[in-house]
Amino acid sequence: MKIAFIVDTFPTISHTFIINQITGLLNKGHSVDIYAQEKGDSSMLHADVEKYNLLKSTHYFIRMPKNLFLRFLKGVSSLVFNLHKAPLALLKSLNVFKYAKQVLSLRMLYAALSWLDKPEYDIVHCHFGMTGIRAARLKELGLIRCPFVTTFHGTDANVLPKIYGNDYYKTLFESGDLFTVSSRFMKEEIRSLGAPDERVVRLPVGVHVERFCFRERKFAFGEKLHILTVARLVPFKGLEYSIRAVAEVAKKYQDLRYLIIGSGPLEKELENLALSLGVSKNVEFLGSLSAEEIMKYVAQAHIFLLAGIVAADGSCEAQGVVLLEAQAAGIPVVSTKVGGIPESVLDGRSGFLVPQRDVDALAEKLCYLIEHPELWAQMGRAGCAHVKANYDINKLNDQLVELYKQILPGRNLHMSKVRSKIPAVE
């Protein structure tokens, strides 16, 4: 199959889940082109971006100048120069009665111009609901003529509709052929926004289990305890609560290191919090690291901590992929009963889940694991088996291809039949 991926930004080091799908499809012999609105930071590339030379097959939508006068001049000149290529589509993009603000801002025109001269694809796959809206518009203009899939990831479903209204995805839900989500939690989120149930399929984000070298965690005499978090430093990751919990634990077990990998707008605030709690010597902020560097810290970790919350804007963990990666490596985890996290962790078997924002409960479970290191290996094995059985990226990419096949023209299968062919998804 010839497949086009539409994403907001590429490359992005934190969007490993998109890269895993693309490389999985390439490994199966399919052709993949990538279309992005913005260029990402190329100073820190995922290893597979270079290994598969993904930038060579990456294309960018035409940038729309912020200056309205320049935007108008560039748009009109491009329209005149390209009108002969797709006159009907380009003129439809100027239908102010149908597209209103999208026309007046020239967003429809720039989107249409960006898709001219593109090859015919068998499938277009959009990651995040916002790019799905773009594909829906292009389909209305007649520029996309194949089925298209939209994958929702979290913020697109639980934050943007609060800003733009619950009918934000109305056009997308009307014209999209298939919508995939990573968890039952996310399925309910987009159904509440109007997504047609018969076209929504749960397809979890998978991980390369074989890349996370499983190791039974043990605590050697004289060894310093390592607690690890890998997360963007944003509110819904709950770093405030994990630092407070570690501060409580450190009162009893002073010889511990809490390593935080990731960057974000809360970095200075969190550093000040650790200082005010007297644990700046225990809490280390390592910033953004490559996947290879992260693996070195994963290998050393005894406990993985992610104190996710539902933030004020509604954002929360749709699945908690880092928890899957930690379990694949054999690390017991402590997390919260938020969003899709309870689907990713076997509470009481591969880790412990507590209510969000409950510092005492987080500290209690951390102390329990510290005091019972004999449980680490057992929990690690349970977690790794759970990930292998349900979140192996190779199996999930097979299921993705099957989904593509079922919506190709001429198949006309009801989605209930599609689900019956894919037992691991819902």
Provide structural commentary:
The protein has 426 residues and is α/β, with parallel strands linked by helices. It folds into two domains: 2-206 and 395-421, Glycogen Phosphorylase B (Rossmann fold), CATH 3.40.50.2000; 209-389, Glycogen Phosphorylase B (Rossmann fold). The chain is 43% helix and 15% strand. The protein has 21 helices and 13 strands. The protein has helices spanning 16-27, 47-51, 68-82, 87-92, 96-99, 101-104, 107-114, 129-140, 155-158, 160-164, 170-175, 184-192, 239-250, 267-276, 291-300, 321-328, 341-344, 359-371, 376-390, 393-407, 415-421; strands at residues 2-10, 31-39, 58-60, 123-127, 148-151, 178-181, 200-202, 225-230, 256-261, 283-287, 303-305, 333-336, 351-354. The strands form two sheets. The chain has a seven-stranded parallel β-sheet. α1 links the parallel β1 (2-10) and β2 (31-39). α1 (16-27) crosses α20, α13 crosses α18 and α16 (321-328) crosses α19 (376-390). The longest helix is centred in the N-terminal third of the chain and has 15 residues, at 68-82. The model is unreliable at 419-426 (pLDDT under 50).
Amount of helix: 40-55%
Count of spatially separate domains: 2
Strand content: 15-25%
Instruction: List the strand order in the largest sheet.
Output: 3-2-1-4-5-6-7
